[in-house]
């Protein structure tokens, strides 16, 4: 069965590239341009993976991450943070909030796909 | 002197009140030929005002502040 | 008929009782168990204010002027409210400086002046003599009235009798004996007389009880209560007229001047100073007296009107002197014992006053008049006599007798012409002359000896001329033409119509002119020249008494040498060797020294001895006396200068220290602030770099992703290919633009930017910018509107930079326009000294919170519903820097939902030139 992926990204061109890459790989892709839209979608269906941009308008990635982890329905959903801020403190914060892994922008498309595949292959180790 | 200076200020205010009550023109307000219990109003007024002033002095002095 | 013998025996018995009480009081004081050390006795002793003037005279005055007797008691009530400030200060000062009379007080205040002390004494004696005469007259009148019992018709006056047959004379001498016995028993530095105060307090009770007893008898015994008295009085037309026309309603000026006079009298009368200040045991007693004393006055006045009205109704007009109603009303009703009680009450009132007044006057006469003169007469060799205490006591005793004889003399000369109250008022007006020097001296440091002397002198002369001499003239002792035609026939100098002033009663008239002269001279001559060092020092000690806690601080600048033995001998000469011994032992104890032999002769001891002697002979003489044994090394001018210099140096040094510490504190604060700013800057820099990094990474991410997609997927269809390539190109441009802007801003901020200022025409700039944007606007369906005046002044700016600003504002506006009927309006107006450009859109608007931050770097309106705003976040920051560089201002006004308007101004050319020149 095909895994489902939700991409949350406010930068139009990056969203387009991610959508293209994951769609070509065969995943069922849905997209959201801000945190509120993402939450709406998450309430309708539970994806296997969420690609989450940190710098989002209104509700930022960290907040959304924490909110998702508080939703029991999303216990099995993996979260990959995609961030343009490479600071360690921020990465640590994201992981502490329940993200499974992170990727810094700009990224290699091959690395992105490798990470996505690996993440979806392994069962989610229950976090906090 | 051991009390708060407020006491002194109250007494000065009372002094000023007394100066007002026991002088023209306030006195002239009571100088008419009105009588109460047969006593001319002016006498009643002066003695009553006097008594009130003394009572206030006692109140100010004997009142324990704090 | 009461026998004269009975009355005399009763009188003597009463005075004997006073003796017993005074004796008992002194014994208790010697044993250290004072009976007067409580506020109630203190208050009762203050009631010595109520003399036979009150006891007999108030009724007499009420019988002629209705309520007009009252100001004499309202004034002290009002003054009592000020005791907290005035009397307390007097008590404190007197205790600190061993001041024993009002003359000493004033003399001491103005630099320990002999002359001033003497003048005050003379005024006091001359002023008080009529008052003492008043008491003698009252005693005499009451005595002869009682002798007529039960006949109440006035008899011949005692004043016309030769003095050996006149009871008044014997009464005067009896009072002298009593006063001498208890007022001058021994000399004491504090000049306190406990036994005497006890006797005075007892007398205050007696006179109050007696007066109220008569009042109750008249009101309820002869009439049927207050209302009945007044109602019956109203039935008689004359009395009705008195009730409503006399007194207050008759003459408010008299009312007010009597109030003021009695206010001053309650603190300035020598006997009031004696009981309130000198005899004060504990200044805390003053608190309760503030309201208890007025209460006493209130109580003793309640029945004045009923007695006066009762007398007027009871006796046929003209048959009985209204001053005697207190006696004659009980007599006419054959109430023998009540009449005797009233007589004793009157006697109490009179004797209390005479005793205290003569003691106070004798102290003044001795200390401030006689001793300074005697000590000056070198041929008496007084300064070499081993023990002067006997001499001092002798002087005082003589003074008591002299004062009483003077009073008796005045009674004989002028006593018949005046009613009791009028005589008393002459005295009140005399002591009122002390008020400017006294009250001014308590609160004003600027008052000087010269001012006090001339003020007192002038006020006294006016009093003498316009009040005392007329009283002699009315008694026939001076030609009456003195009154009617003025001195030497000068009309303007008529004593009671000075300079043609009419319409005032004689007391108000005298008070007015004497106070003008007194205050005028006091203030005028005080300001004439700078106070001397001695005046200045005393002024400080008096006015700031609450700040100088330790007595003895007055001797700060004393330098000299003396032996302890010399000082002790000196003190012994004035208060007796035995008391001097005790005094030195007390001093040693107070200094924490074991025995008096350990005492060293320092400035503190010298000041102590001086103040002890001051108690006996007054402060001015005491200073001279101490100077006679102390080999004083007078401070030479250069030494004084050195002391002052030292003090001012210390002051300057401490000021410097203070200054330094303030500077240090300021520097610390500055450093702390700088540190905070640095930290803030550091954080901002981090934020900036982080943000720049983020802003750079975002287009890079797209570029790399699509490059890899294109490279990994060669089979993509051409449409998709060109779309992705287009994205790569756009994002590369975005990247370039961003890098340029960051560099641009960095250059502007560091001042390294290239500016090409020139005179520019704003119309052209706006035209160009609008043209450049018009294509994009057309694509997005935005109406672009430009409004400009025909002619505008040129401005000095960099044309390209200003164009950059306008373009930035226009593209921002275009970016925020999402509605179908979007419009952007550009307008240009000429203001007084600048051009103003406005770029208005009808887009989503900017919230107030965002308005504050949009001009900061990388701050964008993040919560726009249209998603992430376009632009780098640096445009407005750069624009603001550019406008600021040319002396203008860039700001925004916006209503969220209704659109925003960005404004900027550029100063007109001449203004800009002026700004740059400056």
Give the amount of beta strand of chain C, in percent. Answer: 5-15%
Task: Report helical residue fraction of chain B.
Answer: 55-70%
Low-confidence region ranges of chain C: 155-162, 549-559, 862-869
The largest pleated sheet of chain C is described as: 5 strands, mixed
Whole-Å distance between the termini of chain C? 111 Å
User: Most extensive interface, residues per chain?
Assistant: B-C, 35 and 40 residues
Morphology call of chain C: elongated
Radius of gyration of chain C using CA atoms only: 48 Å
Percentage of β-strand residues of chain B: 5-15%
Structural class of chain B: mainly alpha
- Widest β-sheet, arrangement of strands of chain C: 4-6-7-9-8
Rough outline of chain B: elongated
The Cα radius of gyration of chain B reads 15 Å
List the helices and strands and how they pair.
The complex is a heterotrimer of chains A (128), B (66) and C (918).
Chain A: E1 4-8, H1 12-25, E2 28-32, H2 35-44, E3 49-53, H3 61-69, E4 78-83, H4 88-96, E5 101-104, H5 109-121
Parallel strand pairs in A: 1-2, 1-3, 3-4, 4-5
Chain B: H1 5-21, H2 26-29, E1 35-36, E2 39-40, H3 41-62
Antiparallel strand pairs in B: 1-2
Helix pairs in contact in B: 1-3
Chain C: H1 4-30, H2 39-46, H3 52-65, H4 71-83, H5 86-97, H6 102-109, H7 114-147, H8 167-183, H9 194-222, H10 226-235, H11 237-245, H12 252-268, H13 270-278, H14 285-301, H15 304-314, H16 325-332, H17 336-376, H18 389-414, H19 420-432, H20 435-443, H21 449-474, H22 481-485, H23 506-528, H24 533-543, E1 560-561, H25 564-575, H26 577-590, H27 603-617, H28 619-629, E2 631-632, H29 637-712, H30 718-750, E3 757-760, H31 762-779, E4 783-787, E5 795-798, H32 799-816, E6 823-830, E7 834-841, H33 848-851, H34 875-885, E8 889-895, E9 899-907, H35 909-917
Parallel strand pairs in C: 4-6
Antiparallel strand pairs in C: 1-2, 3-5, 6-7, 7-9, 8-9
Helix pairs in contact in C: 1-9, 2-9, 2-14, 3-15, 3-17, 4-12, 4-14, 6-7, 7-8, 7-17, 7-18, 7-19, 7-21, 8-17, 8-18, 9-15, 9-16, 9-17, 10-15, 12-13, 12-19, 13-17, 15-16, 16-17, 17-18, 21-23, 25-26, 25-27, 27-28, 29-30, 30-34, 31-32, 32-34
């Amino acid at each position: 069965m095909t895994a489902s992926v939700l991409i949350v990204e406010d930068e139009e061109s990056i969203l387009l590239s991610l959508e293209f890459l994951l769609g070509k790989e065969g995943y069922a892709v849905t997209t959201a341009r801000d945190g509120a839209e993402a939450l709406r979608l998450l309430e309708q269906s539970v994806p296997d993976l969420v690609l989450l941009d940190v710098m989002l308008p209104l509700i930022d990635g960290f907040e959304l991450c924490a909110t998702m982890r508080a939703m029991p329905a999303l216990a099995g959903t993996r979260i990959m943070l995609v961030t343009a801020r490479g600071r360690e403190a921020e990465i640590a914060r994201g992981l502490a909030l329940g993200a499974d892994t992170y990727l810094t922008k700009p990224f290699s498309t091959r690395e992105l796909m490798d990470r996505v595949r690996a993440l979806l292959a392994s069962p989610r180790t229950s976090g906090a | 002197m051991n009390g708060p200076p407020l006491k002194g200020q109250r007494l000065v205010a009372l002094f000023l009140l007394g100066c007002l009550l026991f002088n023209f023109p306030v006195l002239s307000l009571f100088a008419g030929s009105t009588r109460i219990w047969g006593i001319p109003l002016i006498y009643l007024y002066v003695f009553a005002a006097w008594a009130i002033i003394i009572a206030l002095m006692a109140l100010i002095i004997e009142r324990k502040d704090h | 008929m009461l026998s004269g013998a009975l009355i005399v025996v009763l009188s003597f018995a009463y005075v004997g009782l006073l003796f017993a009480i005074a004796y008992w009081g002194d014994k208790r004081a010697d044993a250290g168990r004072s009976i007067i050390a409580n506020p109630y006795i203190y208050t009762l002793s203050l009631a010595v204010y109520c003399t036979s003037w009150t006891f007999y005279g108030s009724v007499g005055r009420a019988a002629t002027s209705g309520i007009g007797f009252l100001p004499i008691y309202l004034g002290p009530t009002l003054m009592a409210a000020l005791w907290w400030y005035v009397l307390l200060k007097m008590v404190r000062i007197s205790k600190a400086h061993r001041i024993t009379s009002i003359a000493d007080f004033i003399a001491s205040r103005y630099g320990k002046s002999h002359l001033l002390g003497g003048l005050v004494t003379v005024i006091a004696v001359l002023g008080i003599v009529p008052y003492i005469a008043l008491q003698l007259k009252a005693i005499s009148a009451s005595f002869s009235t009682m002798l007529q019992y039960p006949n109440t018709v006035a008899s011949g006056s005692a004043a016309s009798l030769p003095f050996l047959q006149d009871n008044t004379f014997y009464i005067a001498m009896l009072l002298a004996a009593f006063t001498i016995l208890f007022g001058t028993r021994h000399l004491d530095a504090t000049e306190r007389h406990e036994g005497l105060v006890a006797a005075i307090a007892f007398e205050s009770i007696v006179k109050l009880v007696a007066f109220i007893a008569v009042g109750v008898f008249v009101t309820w015994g002869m009439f049927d209560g207050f209302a009945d008295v007044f109602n019956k009085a109203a039935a008689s037309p004359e009395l009705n007229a008195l009730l409503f026309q006399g007194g207050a309603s008759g003459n408010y000026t008299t009312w007010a001047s009597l109030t003021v006079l009695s206010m001053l009298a309650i603190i300035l009368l020598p006997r009031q100073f004696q009981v309130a200040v000198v005899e004060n045991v504990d200044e805390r007693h003053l608190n309760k007296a503030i309201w208890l004393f007025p209460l006493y006055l209130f109580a003793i006045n309640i029945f004045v009107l009923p007695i006066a009205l009762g007398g007027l109704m009871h006796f046929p007009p003209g048959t009985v002197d209204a001053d005697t109603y207190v006696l004659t009303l009980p007599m006419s009703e054959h109430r023998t014992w009540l009449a005797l009680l009233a007589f004793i009450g009157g006697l109490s009132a009179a004797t209390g006053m005479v005793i205290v007044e003569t003691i106070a006057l004798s102290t003044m006469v001795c200390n401030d008049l006689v001793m300074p003169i005697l000590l000056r007469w070198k041929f008496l060799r007084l300064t070499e006599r081993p023990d002067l205490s006997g001499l001092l006591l002798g002087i005082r005793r003589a003074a008591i007798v002299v004062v009483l004889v003077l009073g008796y003399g005045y009674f004989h000369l002028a006593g018949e012409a005046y009613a009791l109250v009028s005589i008393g008022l002459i005295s009140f007006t005399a002591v009122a002359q002390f008020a400017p020097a006294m009250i001014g001296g308590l609160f004003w440091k600027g008052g000087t000896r010269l001012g006090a002397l001339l003020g007192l002198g002038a006020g006294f002369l006016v009093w003498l001329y316009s009040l005392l001499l007329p009283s002699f003239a009315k008694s026939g002792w001076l030609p009456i033409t003195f009154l009617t035609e003025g001195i030497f026939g000068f009309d303007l100098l008529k004593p009671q119509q000075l300079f043609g002033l009419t319409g005032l009663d004689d007391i108000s008239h005298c008070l007015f002119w004497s106070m003008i002269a007194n205050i005028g001279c006091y203030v005028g001559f005080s300001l004439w020249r700078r106070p001397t060092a001695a005046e200045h020092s005393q002024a400080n000690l008096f006015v700031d008494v609450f700040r100088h806690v330790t007595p003895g601080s007055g001797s700060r600048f004393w330098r000299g040498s003396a032996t302890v033995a010399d000082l002790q001998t000196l003190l012994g000469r004035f208060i007796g060797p035995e008391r001097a011994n005790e005094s030195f032992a007390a001093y040693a104890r107070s200094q924490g020294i074991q025995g008096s032999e350990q005492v060293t002769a320092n400035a503190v001891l010298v000041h102590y001895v001086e103040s002890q002697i001051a108690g006996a002979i007054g402060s001015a003489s005491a200073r001279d006396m101490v100077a006679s044994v102390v080999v004083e090394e007078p401070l030479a001018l250069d030494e004084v200068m050195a002391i002052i210099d030292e003090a001012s140096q210390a002051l300057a040094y401490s000021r410097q220290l203070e200054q330094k510490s303030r500077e240090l504190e300021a520097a610390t604060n500055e450093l702390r602030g700088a540190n905070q700013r640095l930290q803030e800057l550091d954080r901002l820099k981090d934020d900036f770099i982080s943000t720049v990094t983020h802003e750079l990474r975002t287009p890079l991410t797209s570029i790399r992703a699509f490059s890899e997609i294109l490279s990994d997927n060669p089979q993509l269809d051409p449409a998709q290919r060109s779309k992705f390539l287009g994205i790569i190109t756009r994002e590369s441009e975005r990247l370039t633009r961003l890098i340029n802007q960051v560099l641009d801003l960095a250059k502007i901020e560091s001042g390294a930017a290239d500016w090409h200022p020139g005179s520019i025409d704003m119309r052209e700039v706006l035209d160009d910018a609008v043209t450049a944007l018009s294509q994009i606007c057309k694509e997005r369906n935005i109406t672009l509107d430009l409004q400009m005046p025909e002619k505008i002044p040129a401005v000095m700016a960099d044309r390209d930079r200003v164009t950059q600003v306008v373009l930035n504002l226009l593209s921002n506006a275009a970016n925020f326009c999402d509605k179908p009927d979007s419009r952007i309006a550009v307008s240009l107006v000429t203001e007084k000294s600048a051009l103003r450009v406005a770029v208005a859109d009808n887009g989503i608007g900017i919230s107030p919170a965002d308005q504050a931050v949009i001009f900061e770097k990388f701050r964008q309106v993040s919560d726009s519903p249209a998603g992430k705003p376009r632009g780098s976040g640096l445009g407005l920051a750069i624009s603001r820097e550019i406008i600021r560089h040319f002396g203008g201002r860039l700001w925004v006004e916006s209503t969220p939902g209704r659109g925003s308007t960005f404004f900027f101004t550029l100063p007109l050319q001449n203004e800009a030139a002026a700004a740059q020149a400056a």
